Amino acid sequence: MRILLVGGGGREHALAWAISKSPRVSTVYAAPGNPGIARHATCVPIAADALDDLVRLADRERIDLTVVGPEAPLVAGLADRLTAAGHAVFGPSAAAARIEGSKAFAKALMARHRIPTARFETLRDPAAARRYARDLGGACVVKTDGLAAGKGAIVCASVDEADAAIAQCLERAEFGAAGRTVVIEEFLRGDEVSFFVLVSGTAIMPLAAAEDHKSIFDGDRGPNTGGMGAFSPVAGFDASTEARVMDEIVRPVAAALAADGAPYHGVLFVQLMLTADGPTVVEFNCRLGDPECQVLVVRLAEDLVPALLAVARREPLPAALEWSREAAVCVNVVSGGYPGRYATGVPITGADGPAREGVQVFHAGTAWKDGRLVTAGGRVLSVTATAPSVTDAIARAYDAVGRIRFDGMHFRRDIGTRHGRASCEPQDVAGLGPRRPRRASG
């Protein structure tokens, strides 16, 4: 098979690594790719949002399967364009991808179908938004309706913070068109979990779960980022909780989209809060997470490609995938100043040294310049390790991080340390054997 992988971040490097191992695959192209992806694929300098150019590339190279990594091209309709041109594509249509592309759409769908989620209002007027934030007591989450690169959810602990977030979105327009409408919702308390399933219409196959760390600093302090690290499996997300999520959330959402004429075909990322009242949806995403993808692919114990192909061709899904009993931890190494302004073109050393047991260094924001590997983004490298326990995987990951150097380099030092909240014995956790568990946030 000839595969086209769309994207150029850490998630896409992890996917390229997994896809290239498949005995069914002869050739992998990546658009645009990155220096790490180039080890597994032929990189083509076409941006992930250049839809016409991507369709022409798929035509020219006789691509058998296109796998779309990022959300933006899916929301823009890349899957529709490829399907219309006769190509098999793993990723939902624009109509189905609205479940991530519009928070207002997703919340309205959940309200109509009584899917558990936080109390909310969708608003465009700053005064009305401030009134609703006060109705919630000030503790709330202000979310941009549209895509904001993982930074559009502002957690507020007070009325003043809510007022500032509303001004940021609706008055100063710091998120542009994405923030012209906001969803304001109550602050949920509990353990947060990222749960992933393959969906093909109303056919669903659970994958696994992971926990990410969004805040820039240790102890979940500072502004949200696209993700500073992740681990899998997660204690607390057991088989009975998974079954409840499937019955109360995943199957009803898939059925609702299909009934509305937008059947979902791809991976559905369900961000959950495990509250005292049960699993509650924080939001949906229409792709694999980043850095969750990194910890999931290294735990996958079989070929991923047949499952991707079954979704793309609307064929029956496998009953399940086999998962390693090992744990995985990913530590993201980022540029100084991220998620704000940061320098690029900074030389990197130690990222591509001798291979170490149980460690994969996935490139997220790197480039070649004058024969040297340099920084080219906020999140630079995803250092991912596997080991028999989360504790051992943490040690391996940080040992590898310690060998990497570049000016301004920053990383959290507490990734994975929340894993011990509950028993991680294999019989208790949906994610060891076939599958997984996870933690808390707003």
How many separate domains? 3
Would you tell me which CATH topology of the largest domain applies? D-amino Acid Aminotransferase, Chain A, domain 1
Query: Taking all residues together, what is the mean pLDDT?
Result: 93
Q: For the record, what CATH class of the largest domain applies?
A: Alpha Beta
Biggest sheet overview = 8 strands, antiparallel
Strand order, biggest sheet? 16-15-10-11-14-17-21-18
Strand content: 25-35%
Low-pLDDT segments, ≥5 res: 422-442
* Straight-line distance between termini: 43 Å
Per CATH, the superfamily of the largest domain is ATP-grasp fold, B domain
Structure description:
With 442 residues, the chain is an alpha+beta fold. It folds into three domains: 2-91, Rossmann fold, CATH 3.40.50.20; 125-180, Dna Ligase, domain 1 (2-Layer Sandwich), CATH 3.30.1490.20; 191-436, 2-Layer Sandwich (D-amino Acid Aminotransferase, Chain A, domain 1), CATH 3.30.470.20. It is 28% helix and 28% strand. It is built from twelve helices and 23 strands. It has helices at 10-20, 51-60, 71-75, 78-84, 94-101, 103-112, 126-135, 159-171, 239-259, 292-299, 305-312, 390-401, and strands spanning 2-7, 27-32, 42-43, 65-68, 89-90, 120-123, 140-144, 153-156, 182-186, 191-200, 203-212, 215-217, 221-224, 229-232, 265-275, 278-285, 327-334, 359-363, 366-369, 372-375, 379-387, 430-431, 435-436. An eight-stranded antiparallel beta sheet has the order 16-15-10-11-14-17-21-18, sandwiched between helices. A five-stranded parallel beta sheet has the order 3-2-1-4-5, sandwiched between helices. Strand 19 (366-369) and strand 20 (372-375) form a beta hairpin. Helix 1 (10-20) runs parallel beside helix 10 (292-299) and helix 7 runs antiparallel to helix 8.
